[in-house]
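Researcher: Re-running this chain for the archive, since the previous output was lost when a drive failed. Same request as before.
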Amino acid sequence: MKRIYFFLNSVHKGGSEEYVVLVASELVKLGYSITIVSNGTNRLEELKKLGIKHKRLRMPSIHTNDYDELSIVKKIYFKLIKYIVPLFFKKVDVIFSQHPGPSLVANELVKKYNLKHYNFVHHIIPNEYSDVYNLFDFKVDKFIAVSNEIKDFLKDKNINNVTVVPNPIVYDDFKQIEKLEQIILVGHVHKLKTLSVLTFLEVATQFPEYDFKIAGNINNEFAQELIEKYSEYKNIKFLGELYTTELYEEITKSKILVGVGRSAMDGIGLGTQTIVAGHVVGKNGGNYGGLVTRENFYDLAYNNFSGRNSTELITSDKLMNDIKNALDINQTDVKLINIAKKYNSLKTVVNKIVNIIEDIK
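Model: Regenerated structure tokens:
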């Protein structure tokens, strides 16, 4: 039985965290011993039920490509960690890592014990892949990109040992129910997503007959300021972070979902009209993918449903127009749901991960 460790920032409700939990839970069923190492989790009981062990370790986050921008404390941490971490983690066979801070911590174990190391990359920004790696003799057997866009991004950095394994989704337990007069944005409410969040809220003020809900972390000053600012609008509701079952129920009963990445895939797979509205601008100058259809599904999937395939930026007019178009659609596109489920099949994703672990070509 191989002992597999996953290193990441935290295990909360984000898309990259859900990727790890879904894959790890399936690996447990296949007989692997799974431990997640992170700064902390609010899902400890869930992990225990799934047979996943969790170890808490303080690991700094990195949000830059420039080593000089790291604080003195972080620089000292990464100089000393190579002497400390191997003392606590000895019985390990394979390591998966994601996020620069935890990945550099995992890298010290990899070098100390000559372990297999696979690194997940979920985004093209420095808090997912950082050029700081180049200063630390970063040893990775294979990078796992969640989209072809990220594979291209890594190739631009002369990294060629990359394979694409998309986000896994699974919805078999959820049935279609009558849609309510509500529209939901799924995503954390923080400054990095200012444009998409503010555009959603602006549009919400124009549709008083619909409930506009936001599901995602609100434990920050930016979110609290927005909650106060929009408190007079009775149709705007900030739900905070939801458990997966609660989130899927909210998505299923919504007429429209606005989001990116895993959130968008959740909307498509659960039969909710989905609008891709991002916040990071891509090579083509845009971040707004618009309403998802069978015709544009694969173009959007190439960029992990981020909207970065587009030449258009999100605006309130574009979002309002697509919401109106989506509200005019009365029938669920079952073929689109099946395309999404096949493309993001949990079974297919896990098979690819197992092949990587077992070095099956």
